[in-house]
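Workshop exercise sheet. Pairs work together: one partner reads the sequence aloud, the other fills in the structure field after running the prediction. Swap roles for the next sheet.
Pair: D.N. / O.F.
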Amino acid sequence: MKTPEFDVKDRYANGYCGCSLCAGTTATTDNSYKIIEKSFNDSVIFFKVKQFKDERGYFQECWNNAQFKQEIINCDFVQDNMSRSRIGVFRGMHFQYPNHPQAKLVNCAAGRVIDFVIDIRPESIHYGVARAYDLNDPSLFLFIPEGFAHGFYTIEDKSEFRYKVSDYRYPEEECGISLAKTVAPLDFVTCVNQNKEESSFSLLDMYGCIFMNKKDSYSVSLNEFMKIQKEK
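Structure field:
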């Protein structure tokens, strides 16, 4: 019995997801990722994955180890984490120090966050510099290498934040610094969106309506942190 041909008009009813197999096409060699910006001497990489949309919504490939290493950077991840936060929550600026630093691959799967990074590498010409990224779409990802503090601020309710890390959690090495006590000037930081447009994000506005745990609220500046480490 001859198998009936697949009619493209019935593809949605047959579970079409947007991938090359469902579309009846062969895989292409086009890049899976669109790099939006590389900053801190190409260390921090802001990029976008392809989305396939139809009337039901969209499909996207969130993680492909081979493609990521080929198109972004050769980095291995060992753990996935996620959090959900109400509007106005700040989590950060976190890192592990000194023996188990973590590279991170972050993504806002739902809602919207302003993601912050600070270069904490003492030998770096960007030491102490902060930059922000507007993660307002699930297709946007940010790679943060070792040697950076990381945090984010939620500007939509029920924001779902997901991230991969390159090393496991070591509670004795968990550290944090204060964004407000480190950034100069104190009232804003440059923020870039998916169109590579820059704006000034006001830290003063953020701290006027913020929810933060006690541990983060007691954090010191980056310089104070490094001074404490030298005195140990």
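Discussion prompt: The radius of gyration is 20 Å. What would you look at next?
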